[in-house]
Amino acid sequence: MCETASYPCFEVTIENRIAHIQLSRPEKRNCMSRAFWNDLPAIVRDLDRNSKARVIVISSTGLHFTAGLDLQEFGVAEGLNLGEADVKDTQAAADFFSHVSLMQDSFSALEKCRIPVLAAIQGGCIGGGVDLATACDVRYACDGAFFTIFEVKIAMTADVGTFPRIVKLLPEGVVRELAYTGRRMGAEEALRLGFVNQVFSDQESMLNGVMEIAQEIAANAPLAVYGCKRMINYARDHSTADGLDYVAVWNMSMLKPEEMLESQRANKEKRPGKYVDLPVIKDEV
């Protein structure tokens, strides 16, 4: 069964336990409007909390993945809710912090959700698009795609998630060059540096290839995949000793012998495994 839903900036399809979130404003180069920042985390949390999918694929439409923040809709000062206030004003500064925190949370939702998020990128991945891409678990691109930390070109410092994450994905010197210059990093360079996992010849073959990878992930035990994501994120941010302790405690609580046996039976019988989905996350006690 296939479920679909439409939002101002997205089309969402759920099929074969894969949720496909497509940016759907090609006429605006998929710029990130107000609705984008509100709807993306709501969509991701709904998929995760209600266990509607085992994998999320984020792709886009048109020539470019995204041109970043919709400056026409926001405007620099108006978009930050500063109005006519002096930026040194205490209330304006606090409002700025609150507003940016909400935008950061929109992408952190991708990192915090229990299921893997795969990004399929065509054309330009500009400004906020890099913030989005770095928050995904894995990135793929097609020929002609490029990435640019464009904020420096409009006299800004990227603040929605790029720097805390990209320094763990690329060599520091490369990050500094990209940030200071705002230059484009093409798909082949991104592949060589490990920022993307694979470069496809065109968008169609990229989507087909990424969906195949998503299907392979979705066929595995959801609890085991969730454990992998949790451990990788934890290991990235902690010492080796802490990571070893954490994974031991995790498996002490989460390892399911019955699912291991089911996996062995399924492999022997050459059929898909029958695994339990992740539990729905309740909002109330």
Key phrases:
Lyase 2-enoyl-coa Hydratase, Chain  A, domain 2, 10 strands, 2-enoyl-CoA Hydratase, Chain A, domain 1, alpha/beta, 12 helices, 2 domains, single chain, 48% helix, seven-stranded mixed β-sheet, globular, 285 residues, three-stranded mixed β-sheet
Describe this structure in words.
This protein is an alpha/beta fold. The chain has 2 domains: 3-218, 2-enoyl-CoA Hydratase, Chain A, domain 1; 222-269, Lyase 2-enoyl-coa Hydratase, Chain  A, domain 2 (Orthogonal Bundle), CATH 1.10.12. Helices cover 48% and strands 14% of the residues. The chain has helices at 34-49, 71-74, 76-79, 90-112, 128-135, 162-166, 172-181, 187-192, 203-218, 222-237, 240-254, 257-269, and strands at 3-6, 10-15, 18-23, 55-59, 117-121, 124-126, 138-142, 146-148, 185-186, 199-200. Strands 1-2-3-4-5-7-10 form a 7-stranded mixed sheet, with helices on both faces. A hairpin with a 2-residue loop joins strand 2 (10-15) and strand 3. The radius of gyration is 20 Å and the shape is globular.
Quick recap of the structure?
With 285 residues, the chain is of the alpha/beta class. The chain is built from twelve helices and ten strands.
How are the elements arranged and paired?
Elements: E1 3-6, E2 10-15, E3 18-23, H1 34-49, E4 55-59, H2 71-74, H3 76-79, H4 90-112, E5 117-121, E6 124-126, H5 128-135, E7 138-142, E8 146-148, H6 162-166, H7 172-181, E9 185-186, H8 187-192, E10 199-200, H9 203-218, H10 222-237, H11 240-254, H12 257-269
Parallel strand pairs: 3-4, 4-5, 5-7, 6-8, 7-10
Antiparallel strand pairs: 1-2, 2-3, 8-9
Helix pairs in contact: 1-4, 10-11
